[in-house]
Amino acid sequence: MGWNPEWRGLPDRRARREWARQPDLKKVTNRGFTLLEVLVVTTIISLLAAVLFPVLGNAKAAAKETASISSFKQINLALPMYSSDYDDLVANVYTGSYRDINGTWVGLVQPYTRNFDIFWDPTRNRPTPDQDGLWRNPAYSSYGYAQSWIVPTGINLTGYAFAYNGTGCSNPWASVWGPRSLSSIDGISQRMATTPTTFGIYGWMNFRSVQASWPYFGAHQEQSRFTWENLVYETSYTHAGAKIPIGYGDGHAGKIGLASFVDHFKYPTIADYCSQMDARNLWPLWGKSWSPN
Hints:
The protein is 35% helix and 9% strand. The protein has helices spanning 13-21, 25-30, 35-85, 105-113, 157-161, 209-212, 230-233, 270-279, 283-286; strands at residues 153-156, 162-164, 176-179, 192-196, 206-207, 244-248, 253-256. Strand 6 and strand 7 (253-256) form a beta hairpin. Helix 3 crosses helix 4 (105-113). The model has no long low-confidence stretch (mean pLDDT 80).
């Protein structure tokens, strides 16, 4: 075996033989990837992506649901704060001035939330205002509305905010008596005060509990025309597991599912509806129409 300058420093012949058996590091370092290796790596990356993307999507949806619950909690903590400053009255202004942000309960409560964004459900996109600053709902584009008129968060009119001259389930309202006092509501911790609404691709500022609790299951009516029945039910299509975030009258928040509604197709008559509401004890959640003594 001839002399190799790189052997300098190796103690004996055995060490030089061991050195000679080592691979040519330069050749190994300069060798490129084979086609098989590239295919294996690409396949592994594809499999990881297929596994991780749905997980990330679910995590994003869960984050939006958490944000929704947090928003409704803040809103429903602001409602009793407003009532305490205004002689126990529930925020309920509903004027014909659709260009006025103060024409709705949102405009009244917003100073207590100090944040307009929480009235927007994270699962819904916000509209772009026109040059005049008003927003137009594609399902009702002939009118331009102030922000507070088409937020996808509605207040429960008949069950929470307004006093109606109703005579029971079969005739829930005849005329509006006026604003309701917060202390007049029985079972305030069970009463739905606010929840997401749908009208077209946006929302609406209020809903009537006596109708919203009786939607047409599977009928996307709010996508093309306005109906009081499906305003709340439609939001189940945009929330995970068809669970809808809601805010209660005492300030806490939660979620309800389809079991909290009565299917209009399955129970088409008023008598059927009233019977189901009684049998399933849904009145504490939705609330009946109420009038002062």
